[in-house]
Design a protein that fits this description.
The structure is a homodimer of 156-residue chains. Helices cover 43% and strands 21% of the residues of chain A. Chain A has 156 residues and is of the alpha+beta class. In chain A, the strands form 2 sheets. A 3-stranded antiparallel sheet of chain A has the order 1-3-2. A 3-stranded mixed sheet of chain A has the order 5-4-6. The structure holds a DNA duplex (30 and 30 nucleotides).
Chain lengths: 156, 156
DNA sequence: AATGTTAATGACAACCATTATCATTAAATA
DNA sequence: TATTTAATGATAATGGTTGTCATTAACATT
């Protein structure tokens, strides 16, 4: 799963360099893991995946890098109510494209959906504009999640 | 702030009784606190407020009751990214009415807004219907939050 | 009002995701 | 290759939340 050539995409290196950061093996491995899954991974999930190839990379490092990547906007952190955060590459860096989440409250399975975005975009634009003006808030983000019970969980 | 008569609204007692639950002093005090604030309180906030009048009510009891009230649908639990959950009475039991949240990412101030709900309701209905059908999910809830920087935080 | 049943409590320990500390290592640059 | 300092890894600490268990008190029944 990780890039065995040890280089990683060129643009990535640039991205880090120009911020005064370095491209390190753990950082690259973490991005690799995030880039090669459709799942929503916890810090520990990522740690375990990375650990297979680089057994000396520690959990602390994973947390540190995730925090940094979130701050850089390359990774997004989600809370699905499971007691631990989940991470995924942000829209610009993942193949998934813009999507939102549908979360099962029982098994915490998460479905990405990107249908129904037309209404949503309109609604979001309106609301963000209105709220920004009225409450003098500089809105940078939104979180839209639907919760429910998935098919599997509803039949047991 | 708590009802000194020690009775509380009648309908509440009924609500609990018919589920096999009991109306206890801690439970009542917690509901009282939640019913008499416009703030979004953490478990500890509630504990401290309750503690003033009933110093022997413990934090564990607060957590236990909150969990139970959330399961009953009387209280809603929110995560604003602060590292601890916040609680408020659900729409049906609070004077606030249906609203959503605008959260400052720096100071975690939360603004309730109920403007712009017209678009939202339409959008939500559409999306929920579509998602339910397509993904065979029984949708029960949604979470809509806007994040940004409040005026105060942006000028310092 | 007294009693019995059992939901609920309170004190404390345990849990577990996340963060802080700090000596050591290794990217990037010259 | 040497220098600088960002980044690492091991470990301890933090802090919100949950589990345990003996005790208490709501409520229905008598």
């Amino acid at each position: 799963m990780p890039n065995k050539d040890g280089a990683g995409p060129r643009w990535m290196h640039g991205k880090f360099k120009c911020c005064g950061y370095r491209m390190t093996k753990p950082r690259e491995a973490i991005l690799d893991v995030l880039g090669n899954t459709q799942e929503h991974l916890s810090a520990e999930d990522i740690y375990l995946a990375v650990h297979k190839f680089y057994p000396n990379i520690g959990l602390t490092t994973v947390y540190r890098n995730l925090e940094m990547l979130v701050n850089m906007g390359m990774v997004v952190k989600f809370d699905f109510g499971e007691g631990r955060s989940k991470y995924e590459l942000s829209d610009n860096y993942s193949g998934k494209g813009h999507h939102h989440h549908l979360v099962c409250k029982k098994c915490y399975k998460v479905i990405d959906y990107s249908d129904f975005m037309k209404d949503e975009v309109k609604f979001l634009k309106n609301t963000e504009d209105g709220l920004s003006k009225k409450y003098e808030f500089n809105i940078t983000d939104h979180l839209i999640q639907f919760f429910g019970i998935c098919k599997k969980c509803s039949t047991k």
